[in-house]
Structure formats: structure tokens, C-alpha cells
Design goal:
The complex is a heterodimer of chains A (109) and B (125). Chain A has 109 residues and is mainly β. Helices cover 0% and strands 49% of the residues of chain A. Chain A starts with a strand and ends with a strand. Chain B is globular, with a radius of gyration of 14 Å. Chain B is built from no helices and eleven strands. Chain B has 125 residues and is mainly beta. Helix content of chain B is 0%, strand content 58%. In chain B, the strands form two sheets. In chain B, strands 2, 4, 5, 6, 9, 10 and 11 form a seven-stranded mixed sheet that branches. A four-stranded antiparallel sheet of chain B has the order 1-3-8-7, with no helix packed on it. Classes of the chains: A mainly beta (109), B mainly beta (125). Chain A binds chain B through residues 32, 34, 36, 38, 42-46, 49-50, 55, 87, 89, 91-92, 94-103, and chain B through 35, 37, 44-47, 50, 58, 60, 94, 99, 101, 103-104, 106, 108-113, 115-118.
């Protein structure tokens, strides 16, 4: 099974900061990597698919990059509404066995 | 409006059963790949099961043989039948629509683009 890790597990940042979250797969997953944002008590929201494609309606301050085993999610200028937990998810496995990373919590410094 | 609304959660004893429902609006369940994803209290996300538009189904090892995903095309509704429930099944259960991508020349489910609000399942005596 493909395992996903994320770093850091949590971070504190200020409004306006540039934030980078890393996701690593236990084997190559090409670009089959998606990112989600989840706020407390709410369902996750798709931000980035195919490692670097911005989901419709998502602000352009969010970007994704990477391929193979190493991926990053970057928020170019953190906004108050961006404080949340972020998860990566791989979709490479066949038969399907979708796995999520453990999450990165972004809170206010 | 594209929307998913789950129902059916609640408190159940270990070994018991529960059926979750997920009513869709704004799109057709049977034409899409649909999944259940769960989240234990204070924990991360765990994929549970997927049903393809063609009817194929797949499960996480943790629920295989105990849970069954299905759909009712006339009601445009997705279901998750959960049997032999354990304490570790306690979680918020989300239904989600999936996008598609080509993986090694095969059309495959990819990202979870539409989510319901979730329904809480508590397994406890």
C-alpha cells in the first residue's frame, strides 16, 4: 500500500506569510496527488488536483507542485480564512485504495 | 445546485448494524464514481469505499466484508450498509463525488470534488 506523510504536522503563521506544506509518498505516484482544506466541523474542500491544477473557485494564492514522491502546497500570502488543516491524497493505486496524508494544521501565530 | 446530504448516523452497539444514506441533487449518482470517507474524532481522513458508475465496488481493508456500498438510481441516493460494527468505526462519515483521471490508460477515480456535510456514527455500549 502507498503511504503518505506530511510535514510539518502543524505550523503557526501570520497573515501575509508564505506557507509551504510538504507531502511525500512511499513510492512514485506520478502526479496523482490532490490537496484538501478542512475547517473545524466542516467537510474537506478540494483545492488542488493532479499535483498542480487549481480547482475551480479556489483563490490563486494556493498552488501545488511536485511529481513522483515529493509534493508541496504553497499559500503565497496567508489570509485569515486559510487557517485550517490541509491534507494530501493519492489516487495512483490500482485497484483503488485512496490514502490521505495525516494532515498539517495551520494556525495563527 | 450540486449537493450531497447524508443521513442515518447515530449510536449503535458493538456488533450492530447501520445504514447510511447520501441523497444527491444537481447531478446523477449512477453516472458518477461515488465514495464514502470517514474521520474519527480528532483524527485524519480515511477512505472507506467507492462505487464506479458501472457498478464495480472497492473497499478499504479495515471494512472489507463488513460494509457494503450501493446506490438506488430511482432515488439518486448512495448507501453504506455497515454490519458487525466496532468501536474503531466511530467517525463522521462523508459521502463524496469523485472526479476521473486516466491512470495507465485506464479511466480511474481521482479526487473528491463534492462532499456532503457528514453524519456521525458512534459505536459504543
Amino acid at each position: 500500500d502507498i503511504q503518505m506523510t506530511q510535514s510539518p504536522s502543524s505550523l503557526s503563521a501570520s497573515v501575509g506569510d508564505r506557507v509551504t506544506i510538504t507531502c511525500r509518498a512511499s513510492q512514485s505516484i506520478s502526479s496523482y496527488l490532490n490537496w484538501y482544506q478542512q475547517k473545524p466541523g466542516k467537510a474537506p474542500k478540494l483545492l488542488i488536483y493532479a499535483a498542480s491544477s487549481l480547482q475551480s473557485g479556489v483563490p490563486s494564492r494556493f498552488s501545488g507542485s511536485g511529481s513522483g514522491t515529493d509534493f508541496t502546497l504553497t499559500i503565497s500570502s496567508l489570509q485569515p480564512e486559510d487557517f485550517a488543516t490541509y491534507y494530501c491524497q493519492q489516487s495512483y493505486s490500482t485497484p483503488p485504495l485512496f490514502t490521505f496524508g495525516p494532515g498539517t494544521k495551520v494556525d495563527i501565530k | 445546485e450540486v449537493q450531497l446530504v447524508e443521513s442515518g448516523g447515530g449510536l449503535v452497539q458493538p456488533g450492530g448494524s447501520l445504514r447510511l444514506s447520501c441523497a444527491a441533487s444537481g447531478f446523477t449518482v449512477s453516472s458518477n464514481y461515488m465514495s464514502w470517507v470517514r474521520q474519527a474524532p480528532g483524527k485524519g481522513l480515511e477512505w472507506v469505499s467507492v462505487i464506479y458508475s458501472g457498478g464495480s465496488t472497492y473497499y478499504a481493508d479495515s471494512v472489507k466484508g463488513r460494509f457494503t456500498i450501493s446506490r438506488d438510481n430511482s432515488k439518486n441516493t448512495l448507501y453504506l450498509q455497515m454490519n458487525s460494527l466496532r468501536a474503531e468505526d466511530t467517525a463522521v462519515y462523508y459521502c463524496a463525488r469523485m472526479t476521473l483521471v486516466v491512470v495507465t490508460a485506464i479511466l480511474s477515480p481521482d479526487a473528491f470534488d463534492i462532499w456532503g456535510q457528514g453524519t456521525m456514527v458512534t459505536v459504543s455500549s
